[in-house]
Amino acid sequence: MLVVLSVDMEGVSQLRRGREIFAACPEYWLTGKPRFEEEVAAACEGLLAGGATEVVVLDNHGSGNPVNIGAEALPAGARLETWNLWDVPRHGADAMLQVGYHARGGVDGFLSHTYVPGLRLRCGDELISESHGRAWAARTRLIGISGNDLHEETLGSLVGTAFLVAQRSQGHGAAEPVAELDAVREFARTCAEHAPDVQPIIVPGETLLSASMPNGAAVEATMREGGWIRSGDVEYEIELRTWDDSREPIGAAMLAAFTPLLPDWSNDLTSPEQADAYDRARRERLAAAIEAWAEASEPEWFVEAA
């Protein structure tokens, strides 16, 4: 049984502050990355103990470091790959487990967002999370999710999926651990054991996909290039024939929403030394933006009811 382990970072049990998840900050190197690797390794061990013959780890977190998880951190039987989620079906995966997942944008949970800060995505009448988008792209069994407590409470159409609460939100800027590594390992083992009983996920067919972001009025050109039609001051929509049609529009929406951070962002912060040597003014502006996003309340119109 080939299990894809899709991992994100904000919902990892032992992470408590936003600075731990971005490679431009020293906290990422001191505690964030090591604790992320430990939790991913524990999940791999559990999946293998529960009957997985192969575990492919897909690092779906963007920290500024392109390799958040070192291959040496994984147990035998697990390996890192750089597959795009949309390409998982052609690799013949039998199941997916999601570890370290946070709540969707609009929920007042720890670092809640959908792909990038500020972006909201709605499929039909449902505000969706990264768990939705990635599971629908992979088109396989979603056998479990571990992560933030408010993610479990706002799963919407994914309700009923096995869930381990690994951390509890303390507002948008902080979290406290709930699960230890043994609990993550045992959860993954149980999910693997019960994988044959889980039905393949139901993927949306023809539907309306909507997007909004605070800077929506300034990024119309980027959104139009991705196929979106402007439907309000900061809102856009696109008609999809199948969920596969959302790949390019979602990519455009992520780029558009992330535009304010692009001048200071780098995807090449591969070591503490490289992060420390990164242009100081850009690093400080980026760290300030990260802290503001983590700590500040969002504009009133932008917070959807959970």
Keywords for this entry:
single chain, 306 residues, alpha/beta, Rossmann fold, 7-stranded mixed sheet, 20% strand
Topology:
Elements: E1 2-7, H1 26-49, E2 54-59, E3 78-81, E4 95-101, E5 120-123, E6 126-127, H2 130-138, E7 141-148, H3 149-153, E8 163-169, E9 175-177, H4 181-193, E10 207-212, H5 220-225, E11 229-230, E12 235-240, H6 247-258, H7 272-277, H8 280-295
Parallel strand pairs: 1-2, 1-4, 2-3, 4-7, 7-8
Antiparallel strand pairs: 5-6, 5-10, 8-9, 10-12, 11-12
Helix pairs in contact: 1-4
What does this structure look like?
By secondary structure, the chain is α/β, with parallel strands linked by helices. It has two domains: 2-113 and 129-197, Rossmann fold; 207-302, no CATH class. Helices cover 30% and strands 20% of the residues. The chain is built from eight helices and twelve strands. The chain has a seven-stranded mixed sheet with strand order 3-2-1-4-7-8-9, with helices on both faces. A five-stranded antiparallel sheet has the order 6-5-10-12-11. Strand 5 and strand 6 (126-127) form a beta hairpin. Helix 1 packs parallel to helix 4 (181-193). It is globular. It starts with a strand and ends in an 11-residue tail after the last helix. 46% of the residues are buried.
Sheet with most strands: strand arrangement: 3-2-1-4-7-8-9
What is the CATH level 1 assignment of the largest domain? Alpha Beta
The averaged pLDDT comes out at 93
Q: What profile does the largest beta sheet have?
A: 7 strands, mixed
In helices, the fraction of residues equals 25-40%
Instruction: Assign the CATH topology of the largest domain.
Output: Rossmann fold
Poorly predicted ranges: 299-306
CATH homology-level superfamily of the largest domain: Dipeptide transport protein
Distance between the termini: 36 Å
Strand content: 15-25%
Number of strands: 12
H-E string: EHEEEEEHEHEEHEHEEHHH
